[in-house]
Amino acid sequence: MALRVEQDIFLVRQRGREVAAAVGLEHQDQVRLATALSEVARDLLRGVDGADVTFAVVADAHTGQRVLRVDLAPVRPLPDGRYEPQSGAVARLVDMLGVVTDGGDTVVRMSRRVPAPAPPLTPERLAQLRTELASSAPGTELDELAAQNAQLIAALDEVRSQRDELEVLNSELQETNRGVMALYNQLTEELEETNRGVVALYAELDEKSAQLRAASESKSRFLANVSHELRAPVTAIIGLARLLADSASDPLTSEQARQVGLIRSSAADLLGLVNELLDLAKAESGRLEPNWAEVDLRGLFGQLRGTLRALATRPGVDLVVEEPPAPATVRSDEVLLAQVLRNLLHNGLKFTERGEVRLRAEQRGDLWSLLVTDTGAGIPAELHERIFEEFYQVPGTTRVGGTGLGLPYARRLVTLLGGTLELVSEPGRGSTFTVVLPVGGA
Ligand code: ADP
Question: Which of 25, 143, 328, 339 could form a disulfide with 139 if both were Cys (CB 3.0 to 4.6 A apart)?
C-alpha cells in the first residue's frame, strides 16, 4: 500500500494491526507492531515523502521460525542510505528494525516473530486474508484515533494491573526476606553457640594435656629419684656380698656361699633394673641430648660383633653381624645407637632357642634400615605395640629374665635420633626389629 499523505499513516497503522491479528500475533504484539509501523511511516513521510508498504509472512533464514515482515520502500533515497527512528524506543517494539537492501531495492524493514501455535498460512488462507483486507473499508482518522484510545486505555489498565502484581510480589519478597533473615539469625546464633562449645572443649583439652604433661614429668622425676637413691645401697649390697664370698674372709659353709651368691645375683639384677629406669627417666625427661656425629656403621657393627659374642652362649644359636655395604655412614649418636642395637640383639639371643640372630644394614635413598632378625618364638600381632610399653613382657617369656624396659627405652632413643623402630613378627616365624634412620640425622 502507498504512504503518501498524513492520512495514510493512520491507514498503515490500521492495516498493520489487522495483518498482525490475521497472522496470529497476540493482542499486545499487534499494538506494538502497529505503533512501530505508524512511527516509522511518519518518519518516512517527513523525510523522504513517503513509501510503499508491503506485508509478508516469511520463514526466518536462521531459525526457520515464521515472522511477519513489513517492508517500507522509500519514495526518495534515504539520506546517506540510513534510517534512525525519531524515538529510540520504537526499535524495542519489534524484533528487528533496520535498513536492508533486497534485490537492489533499499527498504526499511521491521519484523516480528509469529507465535508457533498460530494457524499455518496456506495459500488459500492468504488469498482469503487479502480479500478481507481489500474489502474492509479503510477507517477514518477518527476511527483510528478511537482505536488508539481504546488501546491506550487497555495498555494503561495492563500497566496498573502489572503494578498491582508487582506490589504483591514485592510484599511477598519482603516476607521471604524476613524469613531468610530470621533463619540466618537463628543459624548465626547456633553457630556461635557451637563455637563457644568448641572453645570450651579446647580449653578443657589444653588443661587436660597440661595435667598429663605434669603427671608424666612427676613420673619421670619419681623414677629418677627412686632409682638414684636405690643405686648406692644396691651397689653397697653387691660389694658386701663380694666381700663375704672373698676367699680372704672367713670361710662360708656351702649353703651360706650359695645364699650369698643369690644375694649377689639378685642385687646385680636390681642394679640393672635401677640403671635401666634411670636411663628411661632421663630419655623421657628430654634431658638426653644426642651427641651428633658421622657414625661409621662398619665400625659400629664390628664393635657389636665383639661385645655380643660373649652373650651368644647358646650352642644352637649363631650370632651373625653382616658387614654393611661401603661406604656406610649415618649422622647419629654412636653411643645411643649402639645401645639400641645391643638391646635388640640381646633380646634376640634371649628369646631364640635355635637358629640365628642376624644384624644387617640396608640403605634405601635417604634412609638406613638396620635390621635385627631372629629365628625365635615370634610375637603375636596383638602384642606388637604392647611390648613397647614399660614393664610389659609377653606372658611365658619372663623366665629368661629382664625388666620390660628395654624396648620402650630403645624406641625413645630411636625417636630421639630422628628415626623409627618397627617390628615384623609372627609366632613360630621369628621376629625382625627394624631401626630406620635418616642418613642426615634428625
Ligand atoms: P625385657 O627383654 O627386659 O623383658 P623388653 O622391653 O626388651 O624387655 O622386651 C619386652 C618383651 O618383649 C620381652 O619380655 C619379650 O616378651 C618380648 N620380646 C622382645 N624381644 C623379643 C624377641 N626378639 N623375640 C620374642 N619376644 C621378644
Answer: 143
CA 309 to the chain's CA centroid: 55
Name which residue sits closest to atom 20 of ligand 1, judged by CA. Answer: 347
Of 141-150, 203-212, 390-399, where does the model show the most confidence? 203-212
State in Å: Cα 215 to ligand 1 middle: 27
Site to probe by mutation for ligand 1, drawn from 317, 375, 407 as the one with most ligand atoms within 8 Å of Cβ, is: 407
Helix or strand holding residue 254 (H, E):
helix 254-285
Q: Ligand 1, from 340, 347, 421: best to mutate by most atoms within 8 Å of Cβ?
A: 347
**Overall pTM > 0.85:** no
In sequence order, what E strands does 314-401 have?
Answer: 317-321, 329-332, 355-364, 367-374
Q: Is 409 in the pocket of ligand 1 (CB under 6 A)?
A: no
Strand, coil or helix: what is 23? coil
- Evaluate: CB of 348 within 6 angstroms of ligand 1: yes
Backbone angles phi, psi at 294, to 5 degrees: -75, 120
Going by DSSP bridges, is the β-strand pair 355-364/317-321 parallel, antiparallel, or unpaired? parallel
Which residues, 6+ apart, have CB-to-CB distance to 442 below 8 Å?
A: 290, 416, 417, 418, 419
- Let me know the angle formed at the C-alpha of 282 by 279 and 286, rounded to the nearest 5 degrees: 140
Q: Beta-carbon neighbour count of residue 408 at 10 Å? A: 19
Ligand 1 contacts CB of residue 430 (under 6 A): no
154-177 per-position pLDDT tens digit: 888 888 889 999 999 999 999 999
387 lines ligand 1 (CB under 6 A): yes
Read off the pLDDT band of 347 (50, 70, 90): very high
CB-based contact 114:24 (threshold 8 Å): yes
Cα distances (Å, whole numbers) of residue 256 to 92, 233, 267? 124, 21, 16
Give the residue among 388, 392, 292, 271 at the shortest CA–CA distance from 336. 292
Lowest mean pLDDT among 40-44, 129-133, 307-311: 129-133
pLDDT for res 227: 80
- Residue 417, classed as helix, strand or coil, is coil
Instruction: Report which ligand 1 atom has the smallest distance to the Cα of 409.
Output: 6
The helix (H) or strand (E) run that includes residue 434 is strand 431-438
**Please, are residues 110 and 97 in contact by the beta-carbon 8 Å criterion?**
yes
Pocket test for ligand 1, best of 343, 351, 431 (most atoms within 8 A of CB): 351
